[in-house]
Amino acid sequence: MSGIIKVGIADLKIAKGGSTLITIGLGSCVGICIYDPVAKIGGLAHIMLPDSNSSERGKQKLLMYADTAIPVLVERMLEAGASRERLVTKIAGGATMFSSFGKKESINIGEQNVAAVKKALHALNLKITSEDTGKNFSRTVEFYIETGTVLVRTGHGEMRL
């Protein structure tokens, strides 16, 4: 597959070569980009929540949760021909949304998502090479599979990971 491939919320996609994976609306959600630079295979997951054990839906909606989506993403990349030893990871998202309403949130789902993503990646011995997480704004991620470049767009500008 080549061209632009959209990744929805609680979704993941794998692509090769000249494809671009895109996900929008990363508020408290986190986008996880995993890449094999030799095989030029990349995957992008858009997770919503940290832990599948927190809900009965966790057993049915594997791609919604950090602890279940990330192992599925890695497995599908390996099936597509990626090598575990070459995988590099970049993440974006995990913002604190709606903090401008003056309420001190006791549960910051964005922070919890980022922590759960890092824990799941660590359990698979995958290191994060760069990240753009936290703060209080949403992000759009464009993942260019040919080069491994991740472009993060916000209302404040853009940056490359």
From TrEMBL:
Keywords, ordered alphabetically: Chemotaxis, Hydrolase
GO terms, molecular function: protein-glutamine glutaminase activity
EC number: 3.5.1.44
PROSITE patterns: PROKAR_LIPOPROTEIN
Catalytic activities: L-glutaminyl-[protein] + H2O = L-glutamyl-[protein] + NH4(+)
A Pfam family recorded for this sequence: CheD
SUPFAM superfamilies on file: CNF1/YfiH-like putative cysteine hydrolases (SSF64438)
Role played: Probably deamidates glutamine residues to glutamate on methyl-accepting chemotaxis receptors (MCPs), playing an important role in chemotaxis.
Similarity field: Belongs to the CheD family.
Name recorded for this polypeptide: Probable chemoreceptor glutamine deamidase CheD
Gene source species: Candidatus Syntropharchaeum caldarium
Organism lineage: Archaea, Methanobacteriati, Methanobacteriota, Stenosarchaea group, Methanomicrobia
Name of the gene encoding the protein in the UniProt record: cheD
